[in-house]
Design a protein that fits this description.
569 residues, Alpha-Beta Plaits, two-stranded antiparallel ribbon, 22 helices, 12% strand, elongated
Length: 569
């Protein structure tokens, strides 16, 4: 029963996590689709740090469950742990096919190395204090699995769907991670290779979540214990143990390393069962004594208390990341409040990247600096932030992107657009375009009629009249004095130059030119994405380090016509 419950729960969790990262049709996900990601340990911890109420409830629940049942999270809920269990089962299956014994030679009791585990945990905690969640992005088991699902499984599922349907259902985003796919795959394969070799070695040696939960699970209320009176030393439990934490010589189970997969309970017929034990009881080792449930040579209690004290004091420190209003090198998603806050909370799991319907969210290399490696940023050359979309804020499991209503999203200013007239088709080719104004959702861009100067060098006598009258100093004589040069960045299309030119070398063409009102701009990037100028676009997007609130255009309502007996025109 114990093992069956674990298998059912782990299967459901694994399927739901994979389903959450597939998102083939780039549709905004329903609220229930990502509930399973919100009950992961590190997302709940960072969400609590962000002040998200539901994250605090989840974190408290996970701690209580660990104190009662032990490290059930590692077998029931952790996606990387579930993947390791699949590899372990596959290894046993391959061994049986080759005619070998079902048990792997390494499936024996391994003495604990607590200082390695707690050393890794301490190093991660100190790194968290110094650089925020950048360290967690490398070691969080959920984020490691999430990036693999986003970079490999998501495009693979798209390819499979296209093959089954016989048409392109959705474009497979193999280039989403680019060369970053190599470290993403390596970080995911490392625990699986260790699982093939030595079972849950990664979970009990390198995983900081496993180390922290191991501290909490040293004295759980429900422990797996060995009964010396019933055990016949058949070693079936030792061969079944993935964590190598059952010491048959001293009849004890190391509960700090036990992942509660209950494989040993299923394999043992008489000597090993879960027992309700007082957390203050010291287990015995002799015959006719209670089952022994813990055998780790633990570090001194003072060391554990010091570490837990450091962990407790670290939360308030990292809960208030540095805020700045300077311009950031890359834009963070709406709802992240500011780039520094976003980088201090995000673990780069990639869930928002797969949920983004326009694919403007891309994994960063150094766009955010070193602390933002593999974390999402808005790449306005790939897409734009949809005006009506709140997908990234609704799926974020760590609270790095806070939930936004559609009305709040439409006012959140994540960047500012700037218009470079010297690159614009209207000024450079004297032809109307309007692509940027047509796609601006906030009406920050509009067009007015302007007199765009057109210069014919063959008719110019370089008298300098146009240069002298230009109020913006946009006209100048080229070196040698043979031609006039127009600085399109300064020109305001006033038409004065064409009026004073005696030879009509400088003429004006009436065209609709773009005008930008920065107070209405939210920096969604629609104008830049629509701009046909390449390689440098006429509309450039400059990210804001701290998000602001844009003004909303209020147009006067149309007047109702007055009823008249006769036709009014």
């Amino acid at each position: 029963m114990w093992r069956l419950s674990r298998l059912i729960c782990a299967t459901l969790v694994g399927l739901l996590v994979v389903w959450g990262f597939i998102n083939l049709h780039n549709a905004e996900p329903a609220a229930w689709e990502h509930l399973i990601e919100r009950i992961q340990f590190i997302p709940a911890l960072l969400g609590t740090q962000s002040g998200v109420a539901w994250a605090g409830v989840v974190l408290a629940s996970l701690i209580v469950v660990t104190l009662i049942f032990g490290r059930v999270y590692c077998s029931f809920l952790c996606p990387l742990g579930i993947a390791q269990d699949i590899v372990i089962r596959l290894h046993s299956f391959v061994g049986r096919l080759r005619g070998r014994k079902a048990a792997h030679p390494a499936r024996r009791y391994a003495p604990p190395v607590p200082y390695v585990r707690y050393g890794v945990l301490l190093a991660v905690t100190v790194g968290w204090l110094l650089v925020g969640a950048a360290v967690l992005a490398w070691v969080d088991p959920y984020s490691i699995a999430g990036r693999f699902l986003a970079g490999v499984i998501n495009p693979l599922a798209a390819e499979l769907a296209n093959a089954v349907e016989g048409r392109q259902v959705t474009a497979a985003a193999w280039g989403r991670y680019g060369w970053l796919l190599a470290p993403v795959v390596i970080m995911f394969l490392l625990p699986l290779i260790l699982a093939w070799w030595r079972g849950r070695l990664y979970c009990n040696t390198l995983c900081p979540v496993g180390a922290l939960l191991g501290l909490l699970a040293r004295r759980p209320l429900l422990r797996i214990g060995m009964d010396p009176n019933g055990c016949i030393r058949c070693a079936a439990c030792v061969r079944a143990c993935k964590a190598q934490c059952i010491d048959l010589q001293s009849y004890c189970v190391d509960t700090s390393r036990c992942i509660n997969c209950y494989d040993c309970v299923s394999a043992c017929k008489r000597g090993l069962r879960p027992h309700l034990v007082s957390p203050f009881q010291t287990p015995g080792v002799k015959k006719n004594s209670p089952p022994k449930t813990n055998c780790e040579k633990e570090p001194p209690s003072s060391s554990r208390r010091a570490f837990l004290g450091l962990l407790a004091t670290s939360v308030p420190v990292v809960a208030a990341p540095a805020q700045t209003d300077n311009i950031a090198p890359a834009a963070s998603p709406p709802g992240s409040v500011s780039v520094p806050r976003f980088l201090s909370h995000c673990t780069g799991c990639g869930l928002c990247i797969t949920a983004c319907p326009t694919r403007v969210l891309q994994p960063a290399t150094l766009q955010h600096g070193f602390s933002g490696f593999l974390k999402p940023y808005l790449d306005f050359t790939r897409g734009f932030c949809n005006f009506d979309c709140t997908a990234c804020s609704s799926v974020c499991p760590v609270g790095a992107i806070l939930p936004l209503s559609r009305a709040e999203k439409k006012r959140t200013q994540i960047a500012l657009a700037s218009f470079h007239s010297e690159r614009c088709i209207v000024y450079g080719h004297q032809t109307e375009c309007g692509a940027c104004t047509e796609h601006c959702p906030t009406k920050a861009l509009s067009t007015i009629e302007g007199k765009v100067p057109c210069y014919t060098p063959e008719n110019c006598i370089t008298c300098g009249a146009c240069v002298d009258i230009c109020p913006q100093h946009a006209l100048s004589l080229q070196p040698g004095g043979e031609h006039v040069q127009i600085d399109r960045a300064k020109c305001i299309a006033c038409g004065k130059c064409s009026r004073v030119c005696p030879t009509k070398a400088m003429t004006s063409k009436r065209l609709m030119v773009p005008v930008l009102d920065s107070k209405l701009c939210i920096g969604c990037g629609a104008c830049s994405y629509a701009c046909p100028v390449r390689p440098e676009r006429a509309m450039q997007i400059t990210p804001l380090s701290r998000h602001g609130s844009a003004e909303v255009l209020h147009e006067a309502p149309a007047q109702n016509p007055v009823s008249a007996d006769e036709f009014p025109f």
